[in-house]
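CORE FACILITY INTAKE
Project code: CF-77B
Contact: R.S. (postdoc)
Sample description: multi-component assembly, two entities in total
Requested service: structural model of the whole complex
Turnaround: standard
Below are the sequence entries exactly as provided by the requester. Do not edit them.
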Amino acid sequence: MNEQTFYIGIDGGGTNCRARLEDASGTLLAVGNSGSANVMRSVSTAQMSMIEACEQAINAAPVKCALNQVVVGAGLAGANVPSALASIENWAHPFAKLSVLSDLHGACLGAHGGADGAVIIAGTGSSGTRFLNGKFSDVGGHGFIVGDVASGAWLGLSAVQHALQVLDGIYPLDDLTQAVCEHLSVSIPLDLVQVVSGFKAKDYAAIAPIVVALQQQGEANAQMLFARAVDYLEKLATQLVANTHIPLCLIGGLSAIYQPHFSPRVQEHIVSCKHNPEQGAIYYVKQLTTQE
Amino acid sequence: MNEQTFYIGIDGGGTNCRARLEDASGTLLAVGNSGSANVMRSVSTAQMSMIEACEQAINAAPVKCALNQVVVGAGLAGANVPSALASIENWAHPFAKLSVLSDLHGACLGAHGGADGAVIIAGTGSSGTRFLNGKFSDVGGHGFIVGDVASGAWLGLSAVQHALQVLDGIYPLDDLTQAVCEHLSVSIPLDLVQVVSGFKAKDYAAIAPIVVALQQQGEANAQMLFARAVDYLEKLATQLVANTHIPLCLIGGLSAIYQPHFSPRVQEHIVSCKHNPEQGAIYYVKQLTTQE
């Protein structure tokens, strides 16, 4: 490696792909941002998004730099699936070097600056991992609808399922159902079912703020759903940090909402993130490069 | 109407379309069977399935009869959705007459011979309706994944969600998880997620017998899932028959499993079906014809 080497860290999720360009000494030069980079969903889309985000960063940089001078570490959604990881690793990419890990692992390395530690992500989806003695152990996740308990999508779907039972007369009318119906502009089960018929995880997640707001106002059924989410996350956190002294970072749009609800035993582990997932991906590729 | 008029009753679901051909006096002449007739999913497929099932019955009949001599009553999945019902009603069909109602309503009219009564269907899906004073009131249903609580698909999905949490170490290993993993030939979360990634309602429903068998053997987590299903069906049944003396029929692959678990108050209403859904559809079209 010489002075002409640059580093890009990528955090590629289902909707956004962020790139962070640094020089060899670790100085931030520029950032880039593009669309979906989930390699499980589409390897070719992920490749395009990665190149687009990297070119954006390179074009915005105050120094001259080309794709083939850049060592890239990429944390990508779906890279936990071996077949998807293999597809992206076999890519004849235009970079000087490319090392891929899952977006969850990139976030974990970033959060703890490459040191031992755990993360729980609670946003549209949910998942957790820990990095300990050089190894990752994933817990949770698995995606909507089979997993991602306590995620925004899970809260939203649970609220819709509850609302349908209320509209059926199985449970008495409550504020949660009224708020869900208002949000979706429906008043009868048939319309509610039609509106959500094409819903994906992010659409259900858009209902989550309603559940959160009502939970904070003391609405009984919102509190019940929220309590089920907290119960799961407490178990997930315990699974990650039990019998260790590792720190735990909470990441994602719902993390601040959930944080006060963990038990004191879990709270003891919670710290703020040191760096972002893009920096975690740079850390990863630098470690690999050093080992070579 | 003269002697040359025949009647066909159709029960059209998501996978099967059954036709029953009768002469004007109500004597069974022949039956036919074809594929999907869910008008919500595809009106053109439903039309083809209906014609195929009717032609099968006509060709198998001991008397000569043509499509344009046949008065058809059709209970079709998806016909509860007004837009889907309108599409099939606007069809320039080849029959002497066609009257469409939902498959659930056809089943209810058949079960009680056109008299007041309620039905609960518990198979791959779940739903309920009652016919009282000439009007139907639907409760439950709404389809997988937002509704159909206690259905085979619901039991199967719930078992998979549970198994993933067990494989994550969130809950201790149990017989239910082992049985689900054996059924799907998987042993780690990643493989389980991959296997079910394309699963539809019927695929999840194929897991339900595992839950039922373990529930009967006293497995704690299968019993917990089953108890949630029973709790829902009890509320559904109560909603249908409360403050009435109407009889209740249970229909579908899981009905015999659930029947003993209803409360005495619901049990009092339960009777056997008088006729099948095809006969219910014939009853429906005959009633309409009489009224004209």
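Facility notes:
- The longest strand of chain B covers residues 6-12.
- Chain B touches chain A through 30 residues (CB under 8 Å).
Invoice: internal transfer
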